[in-house]
Design goal:
Layout: H1 12-18, H2 20-23, E1 27-30, H3 38-47, E2 52-57, H4 60-73, E3 79-83, H5 89-100, E4 108-111, H6 129-150, E5 160-164, H7 190-212, E6 217-222, E7 225-226, H8 229-232, H9 234-242, E8 258-259, H10 261-273, E9 284-286, E10 289-290, H11 297-300, H12 302-316
Parallel strand pairs: 1-2, 1-4, 2-3, 4-5, 5-6, 6-9, 7-8
Antiparallel strand pairs: 9-10
Helix pairs in contact: 1-3, 1-10, 3-10, 5-6, 6-7, 6-12, 7-12
Length: 322
């Protein structure tokens, strides 16, 4: 079967339909699935074909709204909610234990959740909250679920882990490795830290791919610019007005190429299921295709990826084994 060429205008619906047989029978976990977000849209199209879609959120009320909306639109979908607070190691361990107790295997983990800024804030574990949500929480969660992912391997299937990053990783100098374990308020800048967090996503994906030795396929991606809940938060508007993404009144700038929600989730679904990516683990995707040339040097450096991995293992107190 010849596969279609995906592009900037491809929708998640189209990607899921293309790989319906690949999705069928799979169990998928997606973090950060609030309504009006690309995580929810990815969950929606995947749920049409998958055996099980696990959706997560730290707010039980919002998570229930997502669950109800998915089940209303797709009555036959098997959707399971999971409370997950990535800013707390104890909460991550609790959520991972719940998933590991499921009878079903786990084929795909999509690390989509994001904390898009605001004032400097430390987590219960003493870490900066944006980096906790983007790097430390997902690292621990992925590590604890790795055995379940690996158990889904077969002669014809290799489990995948997807990291939703952003072109914003280019807007800064990369991850400040010296400020991770003991973050300093005077070093904090909302937009700068968000850029670091998105850089960490790319470094994590490439290093996971390398260290797993082919046992896990890992990918990172830029979804595009979408007018989601995150962009509409007050603390993000000034940053986005400054770079021209939003108008001064907070509405999308028509000169900037915004995507629809469906187009925004398309690259996530591609990374999770496109069979053409099998031999390109560790790659960065943009508009549903591999675009490693668009990764900034600081986010493509293997030595930085190794250092970030080692520092993160120390911080979370866990070492990956494959």
């Amino acid at each position: 079967m010849s596969l279609p060429t995906f592009s900037v205008s491809t929708t998640a619906e189209e990607v899921a339909a293309t790989f319906a047989e690949e999705i069928r029978g799979k169990n998928v976990l997606i973090t950060g699935t609030s309504l009006n977000g690309i995580g929810y849209e990815a969950a929606r199209v995947i749920a049409k074909y998958a055996n099980l879609v696990i959706i997560t959120g730290y707010n039980a009320e919002r998570l229930k709204l997502s669950e109800e909306a998915l089940k209303k639109e797709i009555p036959g979908a098997n959707v399971r909610p999971l409370i997950l607070d990535l800013t707390s190691f104890a909460a991550v361990r609790k959520a991972a234990a719940e998933v590991n107790a499921y009878a079903e295997s786990l084929h795909v983990l999509i690390n989509n959740a994001v904390n898009s800024g605001g004032d400097f804030k430390l987590t219960v574990d003493g870490l900066e909250s944006q980096m906790a949500t983007a790097q430390f929480g997902p690292f621990l969660f992925t590590k604890l679920l790795a055995p379940k992912l690996l158990a889904s391997s077969s002669a014809t299937y290799t489990p995948r882990v997807v990291f939703v990053s952003s072109e914003v990783h280019m807007w800064g100098p990369g991850v400040d490795l010296d400020n991770l374990a003991h973050p300093k308020a005077e070093k904090y800048n909302s937009a700068g830290t968000y850029s670091q967090a998105k850089s960490a996503n790319i470094l994590f994906a490439s290093e996971l791919s390398r260290r797993s030795g082919g046992k896990i396929k890992a990918y990172s991606l830029h979804p595009g610019t979408i007018y989601t809940n995150g962009l509409q938060k007050e603390h993000n508007k000034a940053d986005l007005v400054n770079v021209g993404v939003l108008n001064p009144d907070g509405t999308p700038n028509s000169k900037f190429p915004f995507k629809t929600m469906g187009q925004g989730a398309a690259t996530t679904v591609t990374a999770a299921f496109d069979t053409r990516l099998e031999d390109q683990s560790g790659s960065f995707l943009w508009d549903c295709v591999v675009a490693n040339e668009k990764v900034a040097p600081h986010s493509a450096d293997p030595e930085t990826a190794k250092k970030l991995w080692d520092i993160t293992e120390e911080i979370v107190g866990e070492k990956f084994t494959f």
